[in-house]
Structures are given as structure tokens and as C-alpha cells.
């Protein structure tokens, strides 16, 4: 990545401008985008082979509300959308559904060829608060997938939140 591009991306994130999420190399930009100096508690990106990108950042706003920032990139045009849990009940529903997505099992490395179908999309999920039990200690997690329960949840989330986005930040 060139020095000029790094500077541009840094300035875009700092200003809460629309970073261009052209491909998976820009994942750190999305999950690092701060709102009011705060990083997202949860970030999701869907990268599609045809170039469209869906990005989502969830930020705790108050004890009883969440702020969601949406980045949509289609045909080189980036738009930013905003909503809150109070304005968009679907946001709470999709986040509750995420808690029911089964965690993948860690498979130890083997000396065999990888298996699995190739897909045209990839899904990146990052959270700063995951737990093994309801009251256990908190951990962070990043997951990248091309299929499976996380991809199904991500697609449902993108569809469910479509009517919620506004260009005006609440």
C-alpha cells in the first residue's frame, strides 16, 4: 500500500468520511473506523466478487441504545448510512440472532489439501465482547468465512437493515 493511500485512509477514518472498502485489504479500515473517538464493538463486512461491499459498525451509544454505521460501496461509489437501535428494531433482532450462530470448531493443522467450496463472497466479523459462558470473561474475536452460519447471518442482516439507513447521523 502506498504512503499516499495510507495517509488518505487515515484522514478518511479520522473524519468519519466514507473510506473506500474496495476489497478485503481495507478490512482494518472498517473495523478501526471510530465514531466520537470510539471503535466499533462489532464490525461486519461482506465483500462480493462483483465489487459491491457491505460494511457495518456497531457502537454503544447509551445504556439503552446502539449507533450503527453502514458503508455501502457499489461501482466505485461509497455511501454512508446511519441508524440507531431505537429507530430500527431490526438492529436488535439481528444482533440477538448473532448470539445464536454456532461458533466454528478450531481444527488443528494437518498435512492435507484444504477442502471446501469456493464462493464469490467473503464475510468478516469482528467483536470486542465474546464469551464462552453468559457471565464468563470477555474476549475479542475475528472470523473470516466464505460460507456457513456466519455468512447466512450476514446476508440476513444486510437485507433486514436495508430500510433503516439514513444519510443523517442521529
Structural class: alpha+beta
- What is the N-to-C succession of helices and strands? HHEEEEHEEH
Task: Report the radius of gyration as a whole number of Å.
Answer: 16 Å
Intertermini distance = 34 Å
Report low-confidence residues grouped into runs of 5 or more. 1-22
Features:
170 residues; 6-stranded antiparallel sheet; 31% strand
3D architecture notes:
This protein is α+β, with helices and mostly antiparallel strands. Helices cover 24% and strands 31% of the residues. The chain contains four helices and six strands; from the N terminus they run ααββββαββα. It has helices spanning 3-14, 27-32, 89-98, 149-161, and strands at 42-48, 53-62, 65-74, 77-84, 121-130, 139-145. The protein has a six-stranded antiparallel sheet. Helix 3 runs antiparallel to helix 4. Mean pLDDT is 81; it is low at 1-22.
Q: What topology emerges from the helices and strands here?
A:
Elements: H1 3-14, H2 27-32, E1 42-48, E2 53-62, E3 65-74, E4 77-84, H3 89-98, E5 121-130, E6 139-145, H4 149-161
Antiparallel strand pairs: 1-2, 1-5, 2-3, 3-4, 5-6
Helix pairs in contact: 3-4
Briefly summarize what is shown:
This protein has four helices and six strands, in the order ααββββαββα. With 170 residues, it is an alpha+beta fold.
